[in-house]
Amino acid sequence: MSTDSNWDPWNYRNGTGLGSDAPAEGRLDLTGLKVQATDGHIGKVDRATYETASSYFVVDTGPWIFGKKVLLPAAVIRSADVEAGDVFVDLTKEQIKSSPEFDRGTADWTDTSHRDEIGTYYGRHYGGL
């Protein structure tokens, strides 16, 4: 996929119920939902944030990537179905598996350098809004 100049990784897309179009009663709670890549299940949402221009979610991949947790930018979510317990992302398993490693010993999920690296990495794979 090509990089789109409109790539805004840290905001949820409109139409997902998570962005600025969230229902009046509040945003969907993603915690615990299964994450579905374009080619299958990759794990569960461990944590999700909703800060303007800083939103992301952390996926616990369990045994699929040897217990690795990965940070995904909010904009990769295509849709969410809370009733079915699924979040759908516009990425393949391999793209997620090959994402930059997070070093838990030296940073937290809000680490600016890691987030910049993640935004750049997924921007190369993301086709646009």
Automatic annotation (TrEMBL):
Region (Disordered): 1-23
InterPro entries: Bac_photo_RC_H_C, PRC_barrel-like_sf
GO annotation, biological process: photosynthesis, light reaction
Gene Ontology cellular component terms for the protein in this record: plasma membrane light-harvesting complex
Signal peptide: none
Protein name: PRC-barrel domain-containing protein
